[in-house]
């Protein structure tokens, strides 16, 4: 049992090691040379860690962006109230969660081997997150549940979920990527599926965002790095100006983050930091996918014929960069609309009629 916990924590709980191990197995099954084994495994791990490093850069910028707009709209941070925090939950149920994740992954592999749904879920951090959330739901609904029942329920449900979730999205993802080499293994798949269905009903295939023609003087808008920095720059600039004018204690506290630098200039730099983080993520994706897909062919050929790796959301960033830039604007608009709706008191007179 201790060995299983160790494997679940140190292999499945460390996505870079898990994916590097998958690449190593794939290369071994293809009888690659020692040089290719070392190069492929190391580059896959490095590429994945580069993605994580880029994500950290993005989060750093968003840690300025989010409280900035919370203060702009006068929103207060939520409280856990009487709920158990994640740290306390993990200390009590963490072992059960990691064991369930390991068993669930084995169920996923078995289903991929013996059914026509040939998808192996490899987004390690999402596997851990979904296992933890599902465990929390079960414990909240039935606090006295025995650990073995908790482990079994999580493992079976998520093993099935990790197999069928990529399958539901794959017909649409195939059209986006232009191939059938990889799948999407991410909880955003439900939203992606909903968007695809709405697009199928109301969209027009002839209006492809990648074919949008822009005037020669605005060709820079087709560069994902530039448009990301520009879109976030506008939002950071507006937020910084409003914050500078508010003069509230909370606004003053946020503005202290810039130190001796002007807060507006500091905020604009954060927009470039965000764009830099996206660029780092894309570089990591290129390196990571470039090693994983060929290596995974070894697993698909020998162990699970026809299997496809279900990977994290960034793997689709390279295929539709114009669409991704447009989506970033849409997402920012949706977030700001959400903040505005939360900040606007609901007219109680409507409820009294």
Detail the topology: elements first, then pairings:
Blueprint: H1 2-12, H2 15-29, H3 34-72, H4 86-114, E1 119-121, H5 124-141, H6 147-177, E2 183-184, H7 189-202, H8 224-246, H9 249-255, H10 263-302, E3 308-311, H11 321-343
Helix pairs in contact: 1-4, 2-3, 2-10, 3-8, 3-10, 4-5, 4-6, 5-6, 6-7, 8-10, 8-11
Features:
mainly alpha, three-stranded parallel beta sheet, about 350 residues, about 70% helix
Oligomer, anyone? single chain
- Strands of the widest sheet, in order across it, are 1-3-2
Which residues sit in consecutive blocks of at least 5 with pLDDT less than 50? 346-353
Continuous helix count = 11
Q: Compute the number of structural domains.
A: 1
Name the overall outline.
globular
Strand content: under 5%
Q: Give me the Rg, rounded.
A: 23 Å
Number of strands: 3
Topology order in helix (H) and strand (E) letters: HHHHEHHEHHHHEH
Mean pLDDT: 80
The biggest beta sheet is recorded as: 3 strands, parallel
Helix content: over 70%
Distance between the termini: 62 Å
Q: Structural class, from helix and strand content?
A: mainly alpha
């Amino acid at each position: 049992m201790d060995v299983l916990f160790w494997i679940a924590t140190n292999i499945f709980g460390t996505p870079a090691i898990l994916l590097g191990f998958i690449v190593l197995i794939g290369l071994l099954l293809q009888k690659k040379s020692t040089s290719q084994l070392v190069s492929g495994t190391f580059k896959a791990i490095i590429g994945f860690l580069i993605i994580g490093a880029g994500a950290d850069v993005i989060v750093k910028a968003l840690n300025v962006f989010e409280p900035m707009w919370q203060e702009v709209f006068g929103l207060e941070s939520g409280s856990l109230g009487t709920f158990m925090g994640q740290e306390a939950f993990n200390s009590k149920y963490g072992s059960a969660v990691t064991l369930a994740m390991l068993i669930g992954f084995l169920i996923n592999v078995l289903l991929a081997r013996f059914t026509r749904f040939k998808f192996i879920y490899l987004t390690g951090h999402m596997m851990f997150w979904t296992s933890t959330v599902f465990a929390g739901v079960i414990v909240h609904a039935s606090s006295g549940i025995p650990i073995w029942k908790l482990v079994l329920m999580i493992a079976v449900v998520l093993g099935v979920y990790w197999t069928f979730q990529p399958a539901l999205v794959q017909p649409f993802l195939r059209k986006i990527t232009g191939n059938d080499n990889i799948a999407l293994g991410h909880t955003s798949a439900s939203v992606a599926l909903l968007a695809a269905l709405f697009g199928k009903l109301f969209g027009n295939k002839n209006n492809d965002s990648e074919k949008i023609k822009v005037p020669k003087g605005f060709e820079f808008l087709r560069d994902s790095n530039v448009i990301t920095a520009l879109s976030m720059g506008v939002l950071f600039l507006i937020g910084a100006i409003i914050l500078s004018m508010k003069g509230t204690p909370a606004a003053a506290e946020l503005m202290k983050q810039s130190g001796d630098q002007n807060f507006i200039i500091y905020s604009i730099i954060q927009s470039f930091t965000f764009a830099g983080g996206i660029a780092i993520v894309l570089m990591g994706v290129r390196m990571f996918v470039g090693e994983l897909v060929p290596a995974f062919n070894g697993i698909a050929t020998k162990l699970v014929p026809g299997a496809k790796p279900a990977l994290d959301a960034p793997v689709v960033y390279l295929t539709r960069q114009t669409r991704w830039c447009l989506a970033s604007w849409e997402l920012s608009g949706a977030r700001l609309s959400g903040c505005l709706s939360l900040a606007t008191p609901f007219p109680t007179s409507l409820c009294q009629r």
